[in-house]
Design a protein that fits this description.
Layout (H helix, E strand, L loop, with lengths): L5 E7 L3 H12 L4 E4 L11 E2 L9 E2 L12 H5 L11 E3 L2 E6 L2 E4 L4 H6 L5 H21 L6 H4 L7 H15 L8 H7 L10 H6 L14 E3 L4 H8 L6 E4 L6 E5 L2 E5 L4 E9 L14 H8 L5 E9 L10 E6 L9 E6 L9 E9 L4 H15 L7 E9 L21 E3 L10 H16 L2
Parallel strand pairs: 1-2, 1-12, 2-9, 6-14, 12-18
Antiparallel strand pairs: 3-4, 5-8, 6-7, 10-11, 11-12, 13-16, 13-17, 14-15, 15-16
The protein binds flavin-adenine dinucleotide.
The site of flavin-adenine dinucleotide has 36 residues, from helix 1, strand 13 and helix 12.
EC number: 5.4.99.9
Pfam families: Amino_oxidase (PF01593)
GO molecular function: oxidoreductase activity; UDP-galactopyranose mutase activity
Length: 445
Amino acid sequence: MSDYNAYDAIVVGGGISGLMSALTLGKKGNSILLLEKADILGGNCRTYEPVDCPGWRVDTGIHAITELIYGPLKQLKHYFDPGKFPAFRQHNDYYLRKKDGLERFPSTLPGFLNMSALPAKDKVILAGDLLNTVISRAVFGDKQKAVYDVISKHRLSRKTMQFVDALSYLLSGLSMEKTSVSRLVEGCGFSSGGKKGIIRRIAEMAKLFYNSDYRSQGYPLGGIQSITDGVISSFPKNVKHHTREEVRQIGQVENGFCVSTPEADYFADKVIYSGEVKKLPGIIEMPVKWSRQVKELEQATAMTIWLGLKKPMREFNYNGSEVFCDVCDTDKELFYWLMPVPELAPRNKGLVGVSTIIDPKKCHDSEEKLLNTIYSMVPAVEKNIEMIHTQVMAPEKASVSLNYFPSIKTPVKGLYVVGTDTDMRSMGITRAGYSVLEMLKSATN
Ligand SMILES: Cc1cc2nc3c(=O)[nH]c(=O)nc-3n(C[C@H](O)[C@H](O)[C@H](O)COP(=O)(O)OP(=O)(O)OC[C@H]3O[C@@H](n4cnc5c(N)ncnc54)[C@H](O)[C@@H]3O)c2cc1C
């Protein structure tokens, strides 16, 4: 299209999936307009200075970026201008914090059998369940099953059941009854997900004994903003973007779409929508069955508390992150995920972020519980705090549950959806990357 206000494609939303869609389609020579309703680009992939905490910088949630060696970001790297792809430091290990110190969180089956946190009998039963699950996925393919349905629930102690439930919440934001087993198996690095032939699926079982996926995780130096900045600064001239412009309506016109915001009407052959898929039927008329299905997508809410420390603490002197359990609630264990991010702290100070899944109606209680738990696990923290900043966000637009999951192509020709509610593989930004690769396959053929 060559008319004024007309583009080859319009991208709705400027989070990391919308930005990477605009970059890749733009580098393929398409004229692109990206419309973002917020006053800043980046969505959930930003680093900022909280207004009430001058001098401190925090990310939007704590982040370990997965599959850096061979995953989607690596495959999208050549779209970035030279020198603009962020540098990552390796995220070495996950640890389990116990009252007497840290224990490495297992990343292989033998490592799991050595873990001291669970009773020996339960470890053997769970290891058998894991082996069965991985073998059956390798032989029969990825059947959608709940974690609860693949564990020997009647033979495991209550403590171990709570552990598995807490791990499910940590990885998907949902209970073990609702968490898909693929999220657990992929989240623990025993499979990299996606459609594969039987030979590759069987070969992947070696990951049970040698798990290189942990080694492919990293944290971008300069904060997660450096991923967003790398994309924006690589935009070619044919990619335009407007902030503070919300897309309110998308209409189908001859050979394309009319995309309306309070400021103007724009026209395009294709639309790439990167907002929440379940909100799309409110913007464009979609088939009733599809609209009903996407409404079912489940979303978790996470609370992250950033603790600015007066000085770095030896308790957090490791490269990786840790999990620990809620000690204030005996009925239900919940994992907290803590990551030291020293590179964002002012000189000679420390910074850690702690995240957990919460009930959004109980934010105040969750904040108090989270702080009390960390004070109880690492007592020296309390006296060393200089800054507290709390965030409540949806980590991903849809949790990997057993429900229907939309694909990149919608029932409307020329309308595509990207983001963390359109691809189930891996985590957040990597999931967004996978969705952009799938969109490129469909939208540029
Ligand atoms: C606590 C926490 C921990 C996390 N941990 C990790 C991690 O360890 N590893 C990892 O990879 N990821 C992690 N993530 C997730 C990751 O940050 C997000 O999944 C990712 O940034 C989502 O990108 P997105 O573009 O799909 O969605 P979003 O960032 O939500 O972007 C969507 C954008 O679309 C805009 N928009 C929506 N509707 C419209 C409209 N109608 N018109 C115009 N604009 C619109 C929105 O304003 C927004 O900017 C974490 C997130 C949190 C909160």
